[in-house]
Amino acid sequence: MKILHVETGMHLYGGALQVRYLLDGLKREGGTENVLVCPTGSQIGMEAENVADKVYIVPMRGDLDLPFILRLTKIIRAERPDIVHLHSRRGADVLGGIAAKLNGTRCILTRRVDNPERRLLAKLKYRLYDHIITISNGIKDVLVNEGVPAEKISCVRSAVDAERYSQPGDRKWFLKEFDLPGDARTCAVVAQLIERKGHRYLIEAIPEILRNCSEAYFLFFGKGPMEAKLKLQCRESGISDHVIFAGFRDDLERILPCLDLLVHPALMEGLGVSLLQAAAAGVPIVGTRVGGIPEVVRDGVNGYLIEPGSIGAVTDAVVRLLTSPDSARAMGRRGREMVRENFSVGKMVEGNLKIYLNMQENRPGG
């Protein structure tokens, strides 16, 4: 069985990292031939030759890149896959679905975000796909509410390589790397600096957090269009000395075990791979009660769930964890156990493979 995977992400995190895990797992399982289509200059394109049977590097220019239909059609006709699996948006979802439909090839879409779409457009769009995989039940609920038949949707949760994040942290290195004092209590957000990730609500809460825990420091890992605005908010609030904008890091497995707490104040979220990584590292989490986050964070078990946009709630939860280290460590241990049990790479690979096999068995004329 040949699967043609399409991934448009440039950086090897989030969805692209999940595709990397999937390709690696499918190679180990055997029984499938896997071809990857990815953008020029992408990190996954540089690495995928080790895990994919063939890699096509092609220009991908987003939602309005209509010639992408022709580029993908050419590849589909050359490879003749049994299934086209579209792993991301940025044009690949609709344009890729059209290309597969024009060539009579069965098509799967993995949906990783929970933002709603207009009902009529959603009903038209999702007719392009034979099956839809969501990475959380929260996303599945969004699609069902938009009129997509529930039987057309399967939930296969994102995964984390738990072993990679389970090594003890080197606190001495960590403090030196980020120029932190020896008594620092550290809280991080690992997310793109975009509006829907909710950084501004945490920043608004920091002055009150510092009144209760003066040794608290906040590290924002990620880049994005909100960076200048968020830095200005920090300066205006007089908290710049306690906030570090650390950019993208490719060594989170070294950083996360050194943290006291991860905060994810998102307004919407499909699941949140950074939450899985933090949980695997034994870090307690404060997350919002949106999308798939409650599937990773169980309130009072491995962290706290709060309402999105609530300054008071994020303040209380962060202060509670930073000032109760024994309780925080216990939550971190429970989070690590949950991840190993429910979010393993093997489980994610098995879930995708089961869908491929079901589609192959039920293909027309099969």
Largest sheet: 7 strands, parallel
Tally of alpha and pi helices: 14
Number of domains: 2
- Indicate the structural class: alpha/beta
Helix-strand string? EHEHEHEHEHEHEHEHEHEHEHEEHHH
Instruction: Going across the biggest sheet, name each strand in turn.
Output: 3-2-1-4-5-6-7
Mean pLDDT: 95
Give the CATH topology of the largest domain: Rossmann fold
Relative helix content:
40-55%
The appropriate CATH architecture of the largest domain is: 3-Layer(aba) Sandwich
Output the CATH homologous superfamily of the largest domain: Glycogen Phosphorylase B
Shape: elongated
| Rg, Cα atoms, Å | 21 Å
Identify the CATH class of the largest domain. Answer: Alpha Beta
Topology:
Elements: E1 2-6, H1 14-29, E2 33-39, H2 43-47, E3 54-58, H3 67-79, E4 83-86, H4 92-102, E5 106-111, H5 119-125, E6 131-134, H6 137-145, E7 153-155, H7 171-177, E8 185-190, H8 199-212, E9 216-221, H9 227-237, E10 243-247, H10 252-255, E11 261-264, H11 273-280, E12 285-288, E13 303-306, H12 311-322, H13 325-342, H14 345-361
Parallel strand pairs: 1-2, 1-4, 2-3, 4-5, 5-6, 6-7, 8-9, 8-11, 9-10, 11-12, 12-13
Helix pairs in contact: 1-14, 3-4, 8-9, 8-12, 11-13
Keywords:
366 residues; Rossmann fold; 2 domains; 7-stranded parallel sheet; 6-stranded parallel sheet; 13 strands
Structure explained in plain terms:
With 366 residues, the protein is α/β, with parallel strands linked by helices. The protein folds into 2 domains: 2-159 and 344-361, Glycogen Phosphorylase B (Rossmann fold); 162-342, Glycogen Phosphorylase B (Rossmann fold), CATH 3.40.50.2000. The chain has helices at residues 14-29, 43-47, 67-79, 92-102, 119-125, 137-145, 171-177, 199-212, 227-237, 252-255, 273-280, 311-322, 325-342, 345-361, and strands at residues 2-6, 33-39, 54-58, 83-86, 106-111, 131-134, 153-155, 185-190, 216-221, 243-247, 261-264, 285-288, 303-306. Helix 1 packs across helix 14 (345-361) and helix 8 (199-212) crosses helix 12 (311-322). It is elongated and about 65 Å long.
